[in-house]
Each structure stands twice: as structure tokens, then as C-alpha cells.
Amino acid sequence: MTFPIEIESLAKTYRGKKRMQVEALRELSLNINQGEVFGFLGPNGAGKSTTIKILMGLISATAGSARLFGTEVRQAAARRNVGYLPENPALYDFLTGREYLSFVGKAFAMTDGAIAERSGVVLEQLQLTDAANRPVRSYSKGMVQRLGLAQTLLHEPELYILDEPMSGLDPIGRSLVKDIIRQLKRQGKTVFFSTHITADVEAVCDRVGVIAKGKLQALDSVDNILRSGVEGYTVQINGGGDLAAHGYTQLEEQGGMREFLVPKDQFNDFIAQVAVEDGKVELIETKRKDLEEFFLEIVKQGNVSA
Ligand SMILES: Nc1ncnc2c1ncn2[C@@H]1O[C@H](COP(=O)(O)OP(=O)(O)O)[C@@H](O)[C@H]1O
Ligand SMILES: [Mg+2]
Questions:
Q1: Kind and range of the H or E element at 172?
Q2: Count of helix runs (H) and strand runs (E) in the chain
Q3: Could you tell me where in the chain the CATH 3.30.1490 domains are found?
Q4: Which of 93, 176, 223, 230 qualifies as a cystine partner to 137, CB 3.0-4.6 A?
Q5: Of 17, 19, 22, best ligand 1 pocket probe by most atoms within 8 Å of the beta carbon
Q6: In angstroms, what is the span from residue 288 Cα to ligand 1's centroid?
Q7: Domain 5-226 of CATH type 3.40.50.300
Q8: CA-to-CA distance for 148 and 197, rounded, in angstroms?
């Protein structure tokens, strides 16, 4: 079985002047499944862009290997079916948005007809139709970012490699990008994107890999992480007798309504006890560690072990 992305023991050491070395990536191994949205989450300087640049053939790895759809990333053919958004897209700013897309379409050997049709579609998708005939020079940062994304969609590739696609966008732009990612997922496409924002991962990803100090620190489905983060529940009840006598922690009391903090492993017993005492459960809320806390813990641990 070939994966859209296979990364095997990838390492990258940047060698600067005066024997200055930066170990940007160490022994990174990771497979991305067909049809998944994968969040590559890490703080600044973690090695996200380095990984992506290696996948895109822009820099070479010091050790290890990577393949796209089974083809070594050293070969340009590996990227035939890939849309790529660089971290700070520097587009030819003397071209108009439409001309830029046309330039990209030709690079992917699209016909003039296909370029015209697809350009219209993606400009509309990224709300750039009104700006399509203006030079990119006159675009705001957010518009450039959106044109960069439009360009990845143009030839309808199977795999999308996006380096911080939500960066530099206002809330409307971010929500637009998230919608596009969800739409790609519905079409069965594979999306690999980097970010340092946990909420973006929570919103659209199936799986997340946490990278810090050039190492993969965690890899799991977002669902699993959120489920494993459940610490307990706050339960509001009406009536229910002397539950504190059974060792349960009462947080609040208002009128006949009481709120208890119940650890995960005592939840069933608590509910049973409420029923025995003729109480009524009114509201249950899950208390969980969110992805942000999970991420911060891992990054801190990463610092310790590095
Ligand atoms: N061309 C380069 N020369 C030297 N060091 C670099 C170069 N590019 C990146 N680095 C260093 O490699 C590390 C990883 O950088 P990068 O992959 O850009 O991280 P991220 O995208 O996660 O913020 C950082 O310490 C960064 O300073
Ligand atoms: Mg980066």
C-alpha cells in the first residue's frame, strides 16, 4: 500500500557559517493516510517548514527519505498530484490574480480552457473574483494568502501540502480556509497542513502530529486525544439527599439545584446514588483537557528531553 506521504527517519541539519549547526529535524517518521486531514502542530522553530520544504524538493534531507504516492521526493514527478502553499507565498506581484493562476495552470500543463474555467471557480471560492484583474501588488496580506491557496486548488490535485494556511488571515478568512479543507476532505482528498494553533487542528483534523525541537512528540487522532483528556463531569441535580456524605464534592447550591464535580471513574456510582436518593439529574457537562493543554504539556516535555 502506498501512502500519499511517507516520511522515514528524516533528519535535517542546517550548516551555517563558523561551524554553526542547527539540527532542525531528527529521526522524523510519519505516514499520512489517503483521505485524511492531518495537522502538523508545533511551536515556531519546531521543524514544520523544514519538513514541508523537503517534501516539496526545495531543500534536501541530511538523512532519511520521503515519498509522495510512492515516488521519492527528490524526483519532481512525486509532486505531479500535489498542491503546495508555501509559508509566506511570494507571488509574482506584477501579475493580476487571474494572470498568476494562468501562469500556475500552464506550469501544470492545463489547457487554456481548463485554466479559464478553474480560475473562475477557485477565485470565487476564495472570494477574490472582484480583485481578479488587479495586480497582486495591490492585494492585502490576507488576499495574497488566499490567492496562494486558490493556486493549490487550481489543478485539483489529490494531495494538499499547506504551510500555515490560516496565518495572516482575519476570522472570516480563517473560516473560509477551514471550509475549503473540510470540502477537500468530503471529496476524498488528502490534506497535510502545518500550524501552531490548536483550535485549527481541533476544527478540521482527523489526526494530529505534534512536533517540537525537530522531533515528533505525539501522534494520535484528535478524537482519541479529546476523549483521553476527559477528567470528569460537573453534574447538576435536583434533590438527591446527602451526597457529600458519600464523598462527592459539591461545587454550588442554588435553590434546590446543586452542582457536583465528579471524577470520571466515580460517574456511574454517582448517578446511581442520585437515583437511590430520588434526585433528578438536570445537566451533565464534560470537564476535559482541551487540545491546547495537551499541546502545551507535550511541548514542555519536549523541552525537558531535548
Ligand atoms: N536556512 C536555514 N539555515 C539555518 N537554520 C535554519 C534555516 N531554516 C530554518 N532553520 C532553523 O531550523 C529550525 C526549524 O525551522 P522551521 O522548519 O522553519 O520551523 P517551523 O516551520 O516549525 O517554525 C529553526 O531553529 C530554524 O531557525
Ligand atoms: Mg514554518
A1: helix 171-186
A2: 9, 14
A3: 231-288
A4: 93
A5: 22
A6: 34
A7: yes
A8: 20
Task: Please tell me the distance from the alpha carbon of residue 147 to that of residue 75, in angstroms, as a whole number.
Answer: 27
Global confidence as pTM: 0.86
In three state form, how does the secondary structure of 66-128 look? EEECCEECCCHHHHCCEEEECCCCCCCCCCEHHHHHHHHHHHCCCCHHHHHHHHHHHHHHCCC
Q: How far is the CA of 195 from the centre of ligand 2 (A)?
A: 8
In short, whether 92's Cβ falls inside 6 Å of ligand 1 is no
Which residues of the chain form CATH 3.40.50.300? 5-226
* pLDDT tens digits along 141-191: 999 999 999 999 999 999 999 999 999 899 999 999 999 999 999 999 999
Domain 231-288 class?
Answer: alpha beta
